[in-house]
Amino acid sequence: MRDFSEQVAIITGAGQGIGFGIAKALSLQGAKVLLNDESEELAKHASTEIRNAGGACEPCAGDVADPEFNRYMTDAAINKFGKLNIAIANAGVTLFGDFLSYDPQQFQRVMNVNMNGSFFLAQHAARQMKERKEKGSILFMSSVTGHQAHKNLAAYSMTKAAVEMLARNLVIELSPYGITVNAIAPGATLTERTLNDTGYKNTWAEITPMGRAAEVDDIVNAALFFVSPASRHITGQSLIIDGGWTAVSPSPF
Asked: Catalytic one among 156, 157, 200, 238?
């Protein structure tokens, strides 16, 4: 257990899955959390669940693809909780498609959510931290597909490689203000969405060296490390959490 008391965090795309797991863990370990999801219903339901468990959490529904919404969201964290120490850009969309026929509208949606959402959350969060002289942590959600080719995910994998480079580049920009910037790259993970895919759990168990797909807590534990004081001298890094899959990379297809 880590102590996140006196910390204020924003987590995007946190209505369910990995984002919700991170939001709940941070909140139950003392942080005040602004929980974002594009779906107002999911954001409210998730926040209520966390509050009922004893955490401090407020919903903030909206689309992170809009740079102005990211400004609004960081302002909302300040207005509700008085400061901002942690920003986790978890929101993302995965739109599969063959490269030769990939739809331009799908392409723009993937770019806007995955890259705009990460870039402008980090920008506005860092501005708030700098202005208030609050050291802090920014964490991007990457993917094993940013390291290893995966069929029909050309657009998505571009965005995940990009946010890892963004984390590295922001070392130059944000280290003078005491802000760390890192990324985690999950592999196959059992969430509400992936468990709807028949055979997902068994397929990934068969091709993952550790013998199973990740559980949400496997990703949550790494995320909490990167935004805790235990990692205060770690910045510009990306950590793959995939049970060894990228070491051997067998295709699930």
From this structure: 156
Q: What is the set of domains in the chain, with CATH numbers?
A: 8-239 (3.40.50.720)
Report pLDDT digits (tens) over 26-50.
Answer: 999 999 999 999 999 999 999 999 9
Which of 27, 137, 142, 157 is labelled catalytic?
142
C-alpha to C-alpha distance for 103 and 201, rounded to whole angstroms: 29
Active site residue 130: no
Tell me, yes or no, if 156 is annotated catalytic.
Answer: yes
Q: Of these residues, 24, 27, 47, 160, which one is catalytic?
A: 160
- Summarised one tens digit per residue, pLDDT across range 215-242 is 999 999 999 999 999 999 999 999 999 9
pTM of the model: 0.96
Which tokens is 46 given? Answer: 């998730």
Catalytic residue list contains 142: yes
